């Protein structure tokens, strides 16, 4: 995610200090998983506060900014400014990348090991619903990732076309692949 915040941040006109805040937030944003899978963003802010407070070059304002950026990635995302939008787009950047499948498969394994998903069909259904509702917030992410995200949705729909439960769900709701 560090690479993504830098790429999207520069393209969105973010300054040097803000890029540093974004990169630090990206480094800490999933660190809370070592404490709890649920609420990992909150625990990530605690780890960031604890570690960064030992360095005199990070002001309380810097640390609060970093923590705010970490919390911006909590679902559902609702960024309030450009920096938060960069964080949100970077966090879910993989949805529109060419390495979506291996990243998605790794996430499936992670959730399956924690008994948070039971099988691959349910995972694909969950992904389809999530990606259908997902939006990128920055013009840069929309330009870089939206086309490939749409093709991921089409691929998932083809996989799910053979799933009677999914077809039943689709007949009861209007689900369209975003343009």
TrEMBL record:
Transmembrane segments: none
HD domain location: 10-87
Name this polypeptide is given: HD domain-containing protein
Species the sequence originates in: Breznakibacter xylanolyticus
């Amino acid at each position: 995610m560090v690479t993504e915040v830098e790429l999207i941040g520069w393209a969105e006109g973010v300054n040097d200090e803000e890029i540093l805040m974004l990169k630090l937030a990206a480094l800490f944003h999933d660190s809370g998983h070592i404490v709890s899978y649920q609420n990992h963003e909150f625990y990530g802010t605690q780890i960031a506060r604890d570690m960064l407070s030992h360095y005199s070059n990070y002001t309380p304002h810097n640390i609060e900014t970093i923590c705010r950026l970490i919390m911006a990635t909590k679902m559902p995302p609702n960024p309030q400014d450009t920096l938060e939008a960069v964080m949100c787009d970077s966090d879910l950047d993989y949805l529109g990348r060419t390495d979506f499948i291996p990243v998605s498969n790794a996430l499936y394994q992670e959730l399956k090991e924690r008994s948070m998903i039971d099988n691959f069909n349910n995972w694909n259904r969950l992904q389809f619903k999530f990606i259908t509702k997902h939006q990128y917030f920055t013009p840069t992410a929309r330009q870089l990732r939206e086309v490939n995200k749409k093709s991921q949705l089409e691929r998932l729909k083809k996989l799910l076309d053979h799933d009677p439960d999914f077809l039943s769900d689709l007949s009861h709701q209007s689900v369209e692949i975003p343009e």
